[in-house]
Design a protein that fits this description.
- With 315 residues, the protein is α/β, with parallel strands linked by helices.
- The chain has two domains: 205 residues, Alpha-Beta Complex (Spore Coat Polysaccharide Biosynthesis Protein SpsA, Chain A), CATH 3.90.550.10; 104 residues, no CATH class.
- The protein is 47% helix and 15% strand.
- The strands form two sheets. It has a seven-stranded mixed β-sheet, sandwiched between helices. The protein has a three-stranded mixed β-sheet with strand order 5-10-7.
- The radius of gyration is 20 Å and the shape is globular.
Length: 315
């Protein structure tokens, strides 16, 4: 299998062996598995050496995008997966992704995945839909993302779009995918196997990033989307994606308001209106809620309700 796997590892001694072994079990040789230890804080390097995988050990933490780019620069395989050190693959996912890339002469392949983790039941299998790039952009942002543990890339394609954005602390994989889709990379999907997106309570997880990091990433993605959407104008001046971008802006406004960032929320709301979304919701339910309570109060109620639901679901 002509696939390399780059694993950024930060304080990962408890999970990284499982991650590596899942890749080896799917037929990837140890010489093609590259772990980039992002700062030396624990026994990660010892655990990696015991598996036979390759290791780059950085003396200081530089962030996961930096670690992934270092690994990407070292690879000589045709395809690459960027697998987080606490996630893993199973049931032939990698063969399915490589097969989809080759059959379709594609730049990126997306396969199934599921949640699992400490204190929670194994989640339902999530299958990637067949969509064109425009449809996939807004499906990804508004409805359903797919994590790195179920995605493989043609190595030269991800290099050609500049690799990972090292400025970002949040939504790094989402930004890369949106850049790929707006840049016209060809996507294939596979229904074989699955990745496992592992959930746990470590304080070092990227999902705990601050709201300003979240909003910064949203601004970067918006700039890409705005350029792409404005390039889709029809001869009559109509644009099939303008309203969808307005919905994205409205969703970001709700996130900002829910976290007490009212100035940012107001800016995202203004952006939503500029793309034709006059209602105050990114879907019918949120618009109805905002109609009676206003977007600021509604967003905070919805955020608290969602947090309560997640806590109950994990018991």
């Amino acid at each position: 299998m002509n696939l390399g796997v780059v694993i950024p590892a930060y304080r990962s001694e408890h999970w990284v062996a499982r991650t590596i072994r899942s890749v080896l079990a799917e037929g990837v040789p140890a010489r093609n598995v590259l772990v980039v230890e992002d700062g030396v804080f624990d026994a990660t390097s010892r655990v990696v050496r015991e598996t036979g995988a390759q290791l780059i050990s950085l003396p200081q933490n530089g962030g996961a995008p930096h670690a992934r780019n270092l690994g990407l620069a070292q690879l000589d395989t045709r395809y690459v997966m960027f697998l987080d050190a606490d996630d893993y693959v199973e049931n032939g996912l990698l063969a399915g992704l490589v097969g989809a890339l080759e059959r379709n002469a594609a730049d990126v392949a997306i396969g199934p995945w599921r949640y699992h983790g400490e204190g929670r039941e194994r989640g339902v299998l999530r299958q990637p839909p067949e969509l064109d790039n425009g449809e996939r952009i807004f499906h990804w942002i508004i409805h359903a993302f797919f994590p790195p543990c179920c995605i493989a890339w043609r190595t030269e394609a991800v290099r050609a779009i500049g690799g990972w954005d090292e400025r970002l602390r949040k939504d790094q994989d989402g930004e890369l995918m949106i850049r790929a889709l707006t840049g016209g990379l060809k996507v294939a999907v596979s229904a074989q196997g699955n990745g496992v997106y592992w959930q746990h309570d470590s304080p070092h997880r990227v999902t705990r990033a601050q709201i300003r990091d979240v909003m910064y990433a949203a601004d970067i993605v918006f700039e890409q989307l705005e350029r792409w959407v404005r390039g889709q104008d029809g001869r009559d001046g109509s644009n099939p994606y303008a309203l969808a971008l307005g919905r994205v802006c409205c969703k970001n406004a709700w996130v900002a308001f829910a976290n007490g960032e009212d100035a940012l929320g107001a800016r995202w709301s203004a952006r939503a209106r500029s793309f034709g979304l006059d209602s105050k919701g990114y879907n019918a339910r949120s618009a109805l809620l905002a109609r009676f309570l206003g977007i600021r109060i509604s967003s905070r109620i919805k955020a608290r309700t969602g947090a309560m639901y997640r806590r109950v679901a994990q018991r």
